[in-house]
Amino acid sequence: MNWREFWNGSHAIYVNERHQALHYDRIAKDIAALVPSPDACVLDYGCGQAESADLVARRCGMLYLYDAAPNVQERLRLRFGRDDRIVVLSTEALDAMSDHSLDMIVANSLIQYLTHAEFEALLALAHRKLKPTGQLVVADVIPADANAVDDVKALLGFAWQGGFLVAAGLGLVATFFSDYRKLREQIGLTRYAQQDIETLFSAHGFRASRAPTNIGHNQSRMMFVATPV
């Protein structure tokens, strides 16, 4: 199994429904705050379930959602198929999208599941699809020196604020025996030192800088905002 197969199948990555709802609400609000203008065309690349994508759509002209997992795409279409401000893209539709047509591309909590080659392919795609004035936001990047304690602290803090602390504690125990942990041990998560990821951005025609905050609850991880050069 690889990460794409994992996300395409059934999994229990969230400790309960409240955790899942608060997670997607926080992500959507953070992305919405980054939208550059009310008429912007925005692509959420590797969006996952994106349960609160309508919050982002209210802040932009058009929101495109893309996830490589076919089952996720289908669930997104069922959820947002009647929203004229949201378009769920297939891989073919994403490739066919006009070059230099997007104002912002967001890749949140994604590149840890990609190989270096896959991330470079994403950078090449983003450079083609973004307007010359557009922005690429890559968030929730795991630092090279990160440790599991930081993730646990971030989750427990989020759980305390969100009112699901007991469930989070039980969920941490369940995660130890989960397919997620087994896959993480088998193939790992891709990490980046800040200088290394900035070098990759530069090699693919972007000027990037680290943002002061990250999307989502885990502020031990990094977010970068890049513009084409």
Question: What can be said about this structure in brief?
Answer:
With 229 residues, the chain is α/β, with parallel strands linked by helices.
Relevant terms:
single chain, 229 residues, alpha/beta
Structure in words:
A 7-stranded mixed beta sheet has the order 3-2-1-4-5-7-6. With 229 residues, the chain is of the alpha/beta class. The chain has helices at residues 3-8, 17-32, 53-57, 70-80, 91-96, 116-129, 148-162, 165-176, 179-187, 194-203, and strands spanning 41-45, 62-66, 86-89, 102-108, 130-141, 206-210, 222-228. Helix 7 (148-162) packs antiparallel against helix 8. The chain is globular and about 45 Å long. The model has no long low-confidence stretch (mean pLDDT 92). The protein is built from 10 helices and 7 strands. 45% of the residues lie in helices and 20% in strands. Helix 6 (116-129) links the parallel strand 4 and strand 5. The longest helix has 16 residues, at 17-32. It has one domain (3-228): Rossmann fold.
Map the helices and strands.
Elements (H helix, E strand, L loop, with lengths): L2 H6 L8 H16 L8 E5 L7 H5 L4 E5 L3 H11 L5 E4 L1 H6 L5 E7 L7 H14 E12 L6 H15 L2 H12 L2 H9 L6 H10 L2 E5 L11 E7 L1
Parallel strand pairs: 1-2, 1-4, 2-3, 4-5
Antiparallel strand pairs: 5-7, 6-7
Helix pairs in contact: 7-8
> Which residues form runs of ≥5 with pLDDT under 50?
none
The main sheet comes to: 7 strands, mixed
The CATH superfamily name is Vaccinia Virus protein VP39
In CATH terms, what is the architecture? Answer: 3-Layer(aba) Sandwich
Q: Which CATH first-tier class would you pick?
A: Alpha Beta
Mean pLDDT across every amino acid position = 92
Instruction: Determine the structural class based on helices, strands and strand pairing.
Output: alpha/beta
Alpha-carbon Rg, integer? 17 Å
Our measurement of the CA-to-CA distance between the termini, rounded to an integer number of angstroms, reads 38 Å
Number of helices: 10
- General form: globular
Report the strand count: 7
Percent helix, as a range, is 40-55%
CATH fold assignment: Rossmann fold
Task: Write the element-wise H/E pattern from the N-terminal end onward.
Answer: HHEHEHEHEHEHHHHEE
Strand order of the largest sheet: 3-2-1-4-5-7-6
* Count of discrete structural domains: 1
